[in-house]
Known about the structure:
The complex is a heterodimer. Chain A is α/β, with parallel strands linked by helices. Helices cover 30% and strands 29% of the residues of chain A. Chain A has two domains: 4-208, Rossmann fold (3-Layer(aba) Sandwich), CATH 3.40.50.300; 224-306, 2-Layer Sandwich (Alpha-Beta Plaits), CATH 3.30.70. In chain A, helix 4 (112-121) runs antiparallel to helix 5 and helix 5 (135-147) runs parallel beside helix 6. By secondary structure, chain B is mainly alpha-helical. Chain B has nine helices and no strands. The model of chain B has no long low-confidence stretch (mean pLDDT 87). The interface between A and B is medium-sized, with 25 and 22 residues.
Amino acid sequence: MSEIVLETKGLTKYYGGKLALDHLDLQIPRGSICGFLGRNGAGKTTAIKMMLGLLHPTAGSAALLGCDSAALTPAVRQRIGYVTEGHRLFRWMSIAKLERFQRAFFPEQWDDRFFGDMIEYFELSTKQKIKHLSNGQRAQVSLALALAPNPELLIMDDPTLGLDAAIRRQFLEGMIELITRQGRTVLFSSHILADVERVADRVVVVDRGRLRADCPLEAFRASVRKVIAKFSDTAPSEAQIEGLLHCRHSKKQLEMTLVDVGDAEVAEWARQTGAEHYEFVEMNLEDQFIEFTAPPNHRRLFQWEEVE
Amino acid sequence: MRFLALLKKELRESLPWLLLAALIVLGVGLVRLRPRAPFSVADYWQYTSGMTPGEPVNVHYLVGAAQLELPAVWLAFIAPALGLVLGVRHFWVPLFTRTWSFLLHRSAKRSTVLAAKLAAAAIALVVPLGLVWISLHRYACRPDVFPFPEPIKVFASGWLCIALGFVVYLGTALSALSTARWYTTRILGLAFATLAVFFIIAQWKLTWIITLTILAIAILLIQTVAAFEDREF
């Protein structure tokens, strides 16, 4: 089994009486590119900050590169790159000053040439001040700063938030640059499912503070499926099938989102309920994520959609 | 190297404010220390005491009179004000700009990050204000400019005023680091520092002033270190 570089055990966080993260158990093996998914307020940033020792867990623990997050030593931090949410950097510094500042903390690892190449690739000048950069340019500087020390583990908190499609693509290509280096592990939270699909080989899904999935991307893609069953007469208002996430029915049609349900089980259900016809509907990752994390009493915004 | 990088960053962020504070004290000092030639003992007596010409000169008064008293009063306000501004710059601004996460994920201990901030504040208070104060004092002690040297007590009081700047800095830091609400315990750091400054200024005995200043700094420093080590960012 490959080495675990990021592990959480029962990681829990309360803000006052509000539960933000509930017993998160994670194991990320070395070399994984892990997409950390969840809706707004799901607990992603809280989890990341606890992993990095910036927040104290209410219960449980986290370990990065074998070191307890609550006591990350400077030597271990040196091996971890971190891109903060919103790319918050010192606004008064120029890129060159920021590079000098960052380099001081990675005296042996800092790759001047790589940093220079990335800045050039992003068409930035080291004389530019951070306060004069756009969101996208700040994101690019953040990434270059995080990658130049060649970290073993890179943690990014929603790095592509607020970036346009072209900048996002450049950003992801920069990220892929790191991925191509052997044995590097990346954990990145994102709302842009297309980005996750493009680079991740593993997904972790948290929903309202709880871990809902931690598996290879392909396994997630294969396990969340939508089935539309048609009935000659009135469709049943509910479906009794194990693994059912959501069920929507109209007069003669039943639409179900299922998790980990095989073809045979669906066929058996269709036979028992007398469905005239059923089909599996292709879903992209975004659809799967939305269905997977939608609340059980989830209603459509426009009710007329359900009118046949 | 890491500490120096952090120290340089903090000093650079403090630079405009410490220059402004130093310039104000220097300006007040230079206005006060304008040489008035010819400057005889009688002129000096008239100048410092406000007595009319011809009145008998009180030598005891003259020995205790100080040209630097007014700049010292200004310093007693400027140094705490600079302490407040530095505290805001070092601990509050990163909360608003959300740069704490970036700063704290350095390959340095939290104590190193805090030590750099405290050292930067100490340097920012002591070096510019101290240099200005020493310069003013040396100028005021020139026998060709003023007939009496400055009393050592006034010179020492300037340094104590600078130390009060550090008291306010620590109080501001403590309030910034608190996660409580303003109307509860968050205000306590700043309130304690403000009360301590007024209480210390009201003292007459130099030994008491020194003792209370050290005590206030020690209390606030212990609290600040504990709060910073434990703070969530």
